[in-house]
Amino acid sequence: MKGNSRSCFNFDAVVDWHERHKFLKFELRLNIVNTYATYESQFGFVQRPTHKNTTLGAAKFEVCGHKFADLSEYGYGVAFLSESKYGFACEGNVLRISLLRAATAPDAEQDQGRHEFSWAVMPHVGSFLESDVPMAAFIYNSPLHVRTVPGQNASPIVPPLPFWLEGAPNIFLETIKRGEDDFEPNASGTTVILRMYEAFGGHGPVKLHVGEHVPVKRAYVTNILEDTKGELGLVSTTGAHSTLKLEFRGFEVKTVKLVLETEESDSDISDISPTMSSKRDSWV
């Protein structure tokens, strides 16, 4: 590794699995003492004890996690990063990740066959709340893909960012997608949905910047179903990007709907205003 690089040890596995009643795990015994370990959940994290002082605790031999599991103490910690494995465990100072299993019920062919997967071990400075483990887990699950660009292509190699956050490091921009209403038969415009959340359980102010090449006409805050709840004040600067100021509380999920400029007139704005927001009959 380079002298100034982060300590991250990546493991790539290719397994042809044909076991029965076996469980393949990877574990590390760490020089860390903590009664709780941390596991990522959707839009946050959960903590589970590292001891088995009760029969209830003994029955919880595994914890469901999304992209990371972390065992930390003051000043130091170690995280497991995963891109496709979602079972973790920590007993005492032994941190584990479940890789493959071979149960015969209810699925007699569970995990049988060839598998390719990766995981990583990332030591970090500080406790979990002082670390950048969630950010590292996002990067690990979104690797950079390199492709060849034809020489005659005059487009910029790195396009300008359409959206980015500035401010509290505990706020994450998790989703960028088209609005669900855009695909309705009577859709009257083009919208972009941005979903952000607070990852560490604290408050935080943040500025959401929108690139100057994204023609935003209105901005609204919505619920998780994208029903409009209120309009946001969009601060625009001539010849530069636009900005939205947002406040988050612990583990809050906030959804912002951006209405883009179209060739139609502004009369379509009333279709999505808070007073005219229509509820869908069904999301099934």
Automatic annotation (TrEMBL):
<dbReference type="InterPro" id="IPR011682">
    <property type="entry name" value="Glyco_hydro_38_C"/>
</dbReference>
<dbReference type="GO" id="GO:0000329">
    <property type="term" value="C:fungal-type vacuole membrane"/>
</dbReference>
<feature type="domain" description="Glycosyl hydrolases family 38 C-terminal">
    <location>
        <begin position="170"/>
        <end position="256"/>
    </location>
</feature>
<keyword id="KW-0378">Hydrolase</keyword>
<dbReference type="GO" id="GO:0030246">
    <property type="term" value="F:carbohydrate binding"/>
</dbReference>
<dbReference type="GO" id="GO:0004559">
    <property type="term" value="F:alpha-mannosidase activity"/>
</dbReference>
<dbReference type="Pfam" id="PF07748">
    <property type="entry name" value="Glyco_hydro_38C"/>
</dbReference>
<feature type="domain" description="Glycosyl hydrolase family 38 C-terminal">
    <location>
        <begin position="10"/>
        <end position="109"/>
    </location>
</feature>
<dbReference type="InterPro" id="IPR011013">
    <property type="entry name" value="Gal_mutarotase_sf_dom"/>
</dbReference>
<dbReference type="Pfam" id="PF17677">
    <property type="entry name" value="Glyco_hydro38C2"/>
</dbReference>
<dbReference type="InterPro" id="IPR041147">
    <property type="entry name" value="GH38_C"/>
</dbReference>
<protein>
    <submittedName>
        <fullName>Glycoside hydrolase family 38 protein</fullName>
    </submittedName>
</protein>
<dbReference type="GO" id="GO:0006013">
    <property type="term" value="P:mannose metabolic process"/>
</dbReference>
<dbReference type="GO" id="GO:0009313">
    <property type="term" value="P:oligosaccharide catabolic process"/>
</dbReference>
